[in-house]
Amino acid sequence: MDLLKFSEKVKKLARRLKLDDAELLVTNTRILSARLENQEITLELNEAIFAAGLRVIKRNKIGYVPITEPNFDLLERGIKTALVRAAPAPFPSFVTINEQPPEIPASDPAIVQLQNTPARLQEIARDLLRRAYDTGKIETIEGAIRIEHETRLVTTLHSTYPACTERTGLFAFAEVNSKDYDFVVGRRLPEIEEITALGAKVAKGIPDRETTPEAEGIKGKTVPVIVCPEMLEEILRRLVAEHLYAATVQEGMSRFHLGEPVASELVTLWDDATVPYGGNTFPTDDEGTPSRKNLIIKNGILQMFLYDRASAWKDGVESTGNGKRRPLLIEDEHEAPVRCTINDVYLAPGDKPLAEMIKNIDHGVMVKLLLGFHTANKTTGDFTNTLYFGRIINNGEITALPEPGRWSIKGNALACLKTVKAVSQETKSVGNGVLPWVQMELTVA
Q1: Which of the four CATH numbers 3.50.50.60, 3.30.2290.10, 3.90.950.10, 3.40.718.10 does domain 3-199 have?
Q2: Hey, which of 243, 262, 327, 416 has its CA 20 to 30 A from 422?
Q3: Is the pTM here over 0.90, yes or no?
């Protein structure tokens, strides 16, 4: 589908209905995936996945219309219904894009080529399984290789130019024996070796022994914990970010204050949607505000809060480019209202190799995944969750796996940032950011 032509037709309809303003997000996506389950590989292709979301303003009222198909009769009825149910608008108009948005690289021709050759994808998946089984350590293995090619457009009724970009993406993962997993993710095609080695790498790295908190003598104790990048992103995005949003401050719910220490001096954190080939790379946010880099925490000190258009209008400042259609619970992106949302998240790497961080711990835990972390308390930052994937550290070495169902990790996301004792030199792309391994203090519940 030609998204530019579609957006012009939406604008034409908006003018005919005499709307004061309209804001459109529309995507068209093609996905090829290979699902791996033990020795079986299943290919699936989904083409022309269309989705859009439209916000409209008329007579100081704002309404929202999710669009599941490019049917303008349905869209007209949807707009009229939305206006009947409209709420007071938090601002008089949407952003106007009067200059051509910058082009930021986000599409890799090599990924497009791989998507167009399903036989090659199947060959890569088969090689991943073969190498994993060759280790002799596979009882069960599950995984997937997903390739995405998306065209994304954001525009408003009075904008001269749309923000429009093609984006590619690849996500590959393998989970072995329900004991550990690893993944590769990015908008550029990695070395094929990184993909085909996933299962074997996981299988070879699984310790033979499992243990309990009682056997380790650390049940109920606060211990050094190395948080892996994928879990660190969960902590930052789900809990810490809630207290960085200006809307939370305006509601009197944020526990942070500008210029005050909110983390260890080892922590420097920023968000950015302008990095080439980043997960959220796009010229603007979903409201048309230009994307930018936001330095949030510097050496532990809070530098700024993040704004979408509504919270910025309320405070009389500019949006920081963080207005996103962020889904909650079962919402789809295009069904979700605009909420202030952190973009790709980055934490500056430290000066210690990960191996040295492990070597300096007598009794501790490495946390890769906590089960059900979405249930954590966003208001307080408290969490108590089952340790699903991780490692046990003894005398500077990884010695065992946590026995399933016997480990739980307890902490407070806001408080534990102040306990950060070390940050690794190594970093990992987690899809929506690049993060290191971080050592902090948490409790074995």
Answers
A1: 3.30.2290.10
A2: 243
A3: yes
